[in-house]
Protein backbone atom coordinates (compact mmCIF):
# COMPACT_ATOMS: atom_id res chain seq x y z
CA UNK A 1 0.00 0.00 0.00
CA UNK A 2 2.86 2.38 0.77
CA UNK A 3 4.50 1.75 -2.62
CA UNK A 4 1.12 2.18 -4.30
CA UNK A 5 0.70 5.51 -2.51
CA UNK A 6 4.09 6.74 -3.73
CA UNK A 7 3.36 5.92 -7.37
CA UNK A 8 -0.38 6.63 -7.45
CA UNK A 9 -2.26 9.41 -9.20
CA UNK A 10 -5.15 11.49 -7.90
CA UNK A 11 -8.01 13.15 -9.83
CA UNK A 12 -7.70 16.90 -10.18
CA UNK A 13 -11.45 17.52 -10.56
CA UNK A 14 -10.99 18.63 -14.15
CA UNK A 15 -11.92 16.81 -17.33
CA UNK A 16 -10.30 16.60 -20.75
CA UNK A 17 -12.46 15.93 -23.80
CA UNK A 18 -11.55 14.89 -27.32
CA UNK A 19 -13.53 14.49 -30.50
CA UNK A 20 -16.73 16.13 -31.66
CA UNK A 21 -20.32 15.43 -30.68
CA UNK A 22 -21.93 12.94 -30.51
CA UNK A 23 -18.77 10.77 -30.28
CA UNK A 24 -16.98 13.14 -27.92
CA UNK A 25 -15.06 11.32 -25.16
CA UNK A 26 -14.22 12.91 -21.79
CA UNK A 27 -12.01 11.58 -19.02
CA UNK A 28 -10.92 12.90 -15.63
CA UNK A 29 -7.47 14.48 -15.39
CA UNK A 30 -5.07 13.00 -12.85
CA UNK A 31 -1.75 14.04 -11.36
CA UNK A 32 0.98 12.26 -9.41
CA UNK A 33 0.40 12.34 -5.67
CA UNK A 34 4.17 12.94 -5.17
CA UNK A 35 4.52 15.17 -8.25
CA UNK A 36 7.10 12.97 -9.97
CA UNK A 37 6.82 15.00 -13.17
CA UNK A 38 7.92 18.15 -11.32
CA UNK A 39 10.70 16.26 -9.54
CA UNK A 40 11.97 14.95 -12.88
CA UNK A 41 11.93 18.48 -14.29
CA UNK A 42 14.05 19.99 -11.49
CA UNK A 43 16.24 17.01 -10.59
CA UNK A 44 19.08 17.88 -12.99
CA UNK A 45 18.66 21.63 -13.25
CA UNK A 46 21.78 23.75 -12.92
CA UNK A 47 20.61 25.25 -9.60
CA UNK A 48 20.12 21.86 -7.96
CA UNK A 49 23.35 20.40 -9.39
CA UNK A 50 25.31 23.45 -8.18
CA UNK A 51 23.76 22.97 -4.74
CA UNK A 52 24.70 19.27 -4.70
CA UNK A 53 28.29 20.13 -5.66
CA UNK A 54 28.46 22.70 -2.86
CA UNK A 55 27.08 20.14 -0.39
CA UNK A 56 29.80 17.65 -1.34
CA UNK A 57 32.52 20.32 -1.15
CA UNK A 58 31.33 21.46 2.28
CA UNK A 59 31.16 17.85 3.50
CA UNK A 60 34.65 16.94 2.27
CA UNK A 61 36.36 20.08 3.60
CA UNK A 62 34.59 19.97 6.96
CA UNK A 63 35.43 16.28 7.43
CA UNK A 64 39.09 16.66 6.45
CA UNK A 65 39.57 19.59 8.82
CA UNK A 66 37.50 17.89 11.53
CA UNK A 67 39.48 14.64 11.31
CA UNK A 68 42.81 16.49 11.59
CA UNK A 69 41.54 18.50 14.57
CA UNK A 70 40.08 15.36 16.15
CA UNK A 71 43.34 13.43 15.93
CA UNK A 72 45.31 16.30 17.44
CA UNK A 73 42.80 16.83 20.25
CA UNK A 74 42.65 13.07 20.97
CA UNK A 75 46.43 12.91 21.39
CA UNK A 76 46.26 16.01 23.62
CA UNK A 77 43.56 14.36 25.78
CA UNK A 78 45.81 11.34 26.32
CA UNK A 79 48.89 13.46 27.02
CA UNK A 80 50.34 13.38 30.57
CA UNK A 81 50.70 17.16 30.29
CA UNK A 82 47.84 18.65 32.33
CA UNK A 83 47.72 21.85 30.26
CA UNK A 84 47.30 19.94 26.99
CA UNK A 85 44.74 17.49 28.36
CA UNK A 86 42.70 20.26 30.03
CA UNK A 87 42.71 22.36 26.85
CA UNK A 88 41.54 19.37 24.80
CA UNK A 89 38.81 18.53 27.32
CA UNK A 90 37.55 22.13 27.31
CA UNK A 91 37.42 22.18 23.50
CA UNK A 92 35.47 18.93 23.39
CA UNK A 93 33.16 20.05 26.20
CA UNK A 94 32.22 23.29 24.47
CA UNK A 95 31.72 22.12 20.90
CA UNK A 96 29.87 18.95 21.86
CA UNK A 97 27.73 20.82 24.37
CA UNK A 98 26.31 23.44 22.01
CA UNK A 99 24.08 22.75 18.97
CA UNK A 100 25.80 22.93 15.61
CA UNK A 101 22.99 25.17 14.35
CA UNK A 102 23.83 27.71 17.06
CA UNK A 103 27.51 27.48 16.17
CA UNK A 104 26.77 28.21 12.51
CA UNK A 105 24.79 31.31 13.46
CA UNK A 106 27.49 32.37 15.92
CA UNK A 107 30.31 32.22 13.37
CA UNK A 108 28.17 33.99 10.79
CA UNK A 109 27.64 36.87 13.24
CA UNK A 110 31.10 36.75 14.85
CA UNK A 111 31.82 40.30 13.65
CA UNK A 112 29.50 41.57 16.39
CA UNK A 113 32.11 40.38 18.93
CA UNK A 114 35.35 40.61 16.94
CA UNK A 115 35.17 43.18 14.11
CA UNK A 116 38.52 42.02 12.77
CA UNK A 117 41.12 39.30 13.25
CA UNK A 118 44.81 40.09 13.28
CA UNK A 119 48.13 38.32 13.69
CA UNK A 120 50.93 40.14 15.48
CA UNK A 121 52.65 40.67 18.82
CA UNK A 122 50.11 40.39 21.67
CA UNK A 123 49.34 43.53 23.70
CA UNK A 124 51.20 45.77 21.24
CA UNK A 125 50.26 47.68 18.08
CA UNK A 126 52.56 45.49 15.95
CA UNK A 127 50.41 43.66 13.40
CA UNK A 128 51.62 41.44 10.57
CA UNK A 129 48.25 40.47 9.12
CA UNK A 130 44.63 41.46 9.69
CA UNK A 131 41.29 40.83 8.04
CA UNK A 132 37.76 42.08 8.54
CA UNK A 133 35.48 39.50 10.13
CA UNK A 134 32.58 40.50 7.87
CA UNK A 135 34.75 40.02 4.77
CA UNK A 136 36.36 36.76 5.83
CA UNK A 137 33.37 34.98 7.37
CA UNK A 138 31.07 34.90 4.39
CA UNK A 139 28.23 32.32 4.57
CA UNK A 140 30.30 29.45 3.15
CA UNK A 141 33.36 30.03 5.38
CA UNK A 142 31.20 30.54 8.47
CA UNK A 143 29.41 27.24 7.83
CA UNK A 144 32.69 25.46 7.09
CA UNK A 145 34.37 26.67 10.29
CA UNK A 146 31.35 25.79 12.42
CA UNK A 147 30.93 22.30 10.93
CA UNK A 148 34.67 21.53 11.06
CA UNK A 149 35.12 22.64 14.68
CA UNK A 150 32.02 20.75 15.76
CA UNK A 151 33.16 17.64 13.90
CA UNK A 152 36.62 17.92 15.45
CA UNK A 153 35.10 17.51 18.92
CA UNK A 154 33.28 14.30 17.96
CA UNK A 155 36.23 12.92 16.00
CA UNK A 156 38.50 13.49 19.00
CA UNK A 157 36.37 11.11 21.07
CA UNK A 158 36.25 8.57 18.24
CA UNK A 159 40.03 8.72 17.81
CA UNK A 160 40.60 8.53 21.57
CA UNK A 161 38.38 5.44 21.80
CA UNK A 162 40.38 3.82 18.99
CA UNK A 163 43.72 4.65 20.60
CA UNK A 164 42.81 3.34 24.06
CA UNK A 165 41.41 0.15 22.47
CA UNK A 166 44.97 -0.91 21.59
CA UNK A 167 46.41 -3.24 24.20
CA UNK A 168 48.95 -1.57 26.49
CA UNK A 169 51.30 -4.48 25.90
CA UNK A 170 51.74 -3.24 22.32
CA UNK A 171 52.89 0.16 23.59
CA UNK A 172 55.22 -1.42 26.16
CA UNK A 173 56.73 -3.66 23.47
CA UNK A 174 57.30 -0.65 21.21
CA UNK A 175 59.02 1.23 24.04
CA UNK A 176 61.14 -1.85 24.80
CA UNK A 177 62.61 -1.88 21.30
CA UNK A 178 63.47 1.80 21.50
CA UNK A 179 60.63 3.51 19.62
CA UNK A 180 59.81 7.06 20.65
CA UNK A 181 56.30 8.10 21.68
CA UNK A 182 55.68 9.59 18.24
CA UNK A 183 56.95 6.49 16.45
CA UNK A 184 54.87 4.25 18.71
CA UNK A 185 51.78 6.29 17.97
CA UNK A 186 52.30 6.35 14.20
CA UNK A 187 53.66 2.84 13.61
CA UNK A 188 51.97 0.73 16.28
CA UNK A 189 48.93 2.37 17.83
CA UNK A 190 47.19 4.17 14.94
CA UNK A 191 47.28 1.22 12.44
CA UNK A 192 45.61 -1.03 15.03
CA UNK A 193 43.19 1.67 16.16
CA UNK A 194 41.90 2.21 12.61
CA UNK A 195 39.70 -0.89 12.89
CA UNK A 196 37.82 0.84 15.72
CA UNK A 197 37.97 4.35 14.26
CA UNK A 198 36.76 3.64 10.71
CA UNK A 199 33.10 2.55 11.36
CA UNK A 200 32.06 5.61 13.42
CA UNK A 201 34.06 7.87 11.10
CA UNK A 202 32.02 6.58 8.16
CA UNK A 203 28.87 7.35 10.11
CA UNK A 204 30.18 10.85 10.83
CA UNK A 205 30.78 11.47 7.12
CA UNK A 206 27.21 10.46 6.30
CA UNK A 207 25.95 12.58 9.17
CA UNK A 208 28.01 15.55 7.96
CA UNK A 209 26.48 15.23 4.49
CA UNK A 210 23.04 15.73 6.01
CA UNK A 211 24.09 18.24 8.68
CA UNK A 212 25.49 20.51 5.97
CA UNK A 213 21.87 21.31 5.10
CA UNK A 214 21.82 23.59 8.18
CA UNK A 215 24.08 25.96 6.24
CA UNK A 216 21.02 27.01 4.26
CA UNK A 217 19.99 29.01 7.35
CA UNK A 218 22.76 31.54 6.58
CA UNK A 219 22.08 31.65 2.82
CA UNK A 220 24.53 28.98 1.67
CA UNK A 221 23.01 27.68 -1.56
CA UNK A 222 23.74 23.98 -1.06
CA UNK A 223 21.23 21.25 -1.96
CA UNK A 224 18.50 22.28 0.46
CA UNK A 225 19.24 25.98 -0.09
CA UNK A 226 18.85 25.60 -3.85
CA UNK A 227 15.58 23.70 -3.42
CA UNK A 228 14.34 26.38 -1.00
CA UNK A 229 15.15 29.17 -3.45
CA UNK A 230 13.24 27.42 -6.22
CA UNK A 231 10.10 26.60 -4.24
CA UNK A 232 10.06 30.11 -2.80
CA UNK A 233 9.45 31.29 -6.38
CA UNK A 234 7.08 28.61 -7.71
CA UNK A 235 5.50 27.36 -4.43
CA UNK A 236 6.13 23.71 -5.35
CA UNK A 237 7.29 22.96 -1.81
CA UNK A 238 6.84 19.19 -1.57
CA UNK A 239 8.34 18.30 -4.99
CA UNK A 240 11.46 20.40 -4.34
CA UNK A 241 11.91 18.97 -0.84
CA UNK A 242 11.61 15.47 -2.31
CA UNK A 243 14.17 16.41 -4.98
CA UNK A 244 16.64 17.44 -2.27
CA UNK A 245 15.85 14.29 -0.26
CA UNK A 246 16.51 12.03 -3.25
CA UNK A 247 19.93 13.62 -3.78
CA UNK A 248 20.78 13.14 -0.10
CA UNK A 249 19.62 9.52 -0.31
CA UNK A 250 21.74 8.93 -3.41
CA UNK A 251 24.98 10.22 -1.88
CA UNK A 252 24.25 8.52 1.45
CA UNK A 253 23.94 5.22 -0.43
CA UNK A 254 27.23 5.84 -2.24
CA UNK A 255 29.01 6.70 1.02
CA UNK A 256 27.51 3.67 2.77
CA UNK A 257 28.88 1.40 0.04
CA UNK A 258 32.31 2.98 0.33
CA UNK A 259 32.21 2.63 4.11
CA UNK A 260 31.50 -1.10 3.76
CA UNK A 261 34.58 -1.71 1.61
CA UNK A 262 36.84 0.42 3.84
CA UNK A 263 35.65 -1.41 6.95
CA UNK A 264 36.16 -4.74 5.18
CA UNK A 265 39.74 -3.74 4.30
CA UNK A 266 40.72 -2.75 7.85
CA UNK A 267 38.99 -5.80 9.37
CA UNK A 268 41.30 -8.25 7.56
CA UNK A 269 43.49 -8.83 10.60
CA UNK A 270 40.65 -9.40 13.07
CA UNK A 271 38.22 -11.60 11.12
CA UNK A 272 38.97 -15.09 9.83
CA UNK A 273 36.37 -14.71 7.10
CA UNK A 274 35.73 -11.17 5.80
CA UNK A 275 32.09 -10.26 5.12
CA UNK A 276 30.81 -10.95 1.64
CA UNK A 277 30.58 -8.08 -0.81
CA UNK A 278 27.12 -7.31 -2.31
CA UNK A 279 28.14 -9.02 -5.56
CA UNK A 280 29.36 -12.09 -3.69
CA UNK A 281 26.08 -12.20 -1.74
CA UNK A 282 24.07 -12.14 -4.96
CA UNK A 283 26.16 -14.98 -6.39
CA UNK A 284 25.79 -16.96 -3.15
CA UNK A 285 22.01 -16.46 -3.11
CA UNK A 286 21.75 -17.36 -6.80
CA UNK A 287 23.68 -20.60 -6.21
CA UNK A 288 21.44 -21.40 -3.23
CA UNK A 289 18.26 -20.85 -5.23
CA UNK A 290 19.63 -22.91 -8.13
CA UNK A 291 20.61 -25.71 -5.73
CA UNK A 292 17.14 -25.80 -4.17
CA UNK A 293 15.58 -25.83 -7.62
CA UNK A 294 17.73 -28.79 -8.71
CA UNK A 295 16.90 -30.64 -5.47
CA UNK A 296 13.16 -30.09 -6.01
CA UNK A 297 13.36 -31.27 -9.62
CA UNK A 298 15.29 -34.36 -8.52
CA UNK A 299 12.66 -35.26 -5.92
CA UNK A 300 9.89 -34.87 -8.51
CA UNK A 301 11.72 -37.15 -10.96
CA UNK A 302 12.28 -39.73 -8.21
CA UNK A 303 8.58 -39.72 -7.41
Task: Provide a descriptive summary of the structure in words.
This protein has 303 residues and is mainly alpha-helical. The chain folds into two domains: 1-31, no CATH class; 34-227 and 235-273, MetI-like fold (Orthogonal Bundle), CATH 1.10.3720.10. It contains twelve helices and four strands; from the N terminus they run H-E-E-H-H-H-H-E-E-H-H-H-H-H-H-H. The chain has helices at residues 2-6, 36-42, 46-77, 82-97, 100-108, 133-136, 139-164, 168-176, 181-211, 223-234, 237-266, 278-302; strands spanning 9-18, 25-32, 116-120, 127-132. The strands form two sheets. It has a two-stranded antiparallel ribbon with strand order 1-2. A hairpin with a 6-residue loop joins strand 1 (9-18) and strand 2 (25-32). Helix 3 (46-77) crosses helix 7 (139-164). The radius of gyration is 28 Å and the shape is flat. The model has no long low-confidence stretch (mean pLDDT 87).
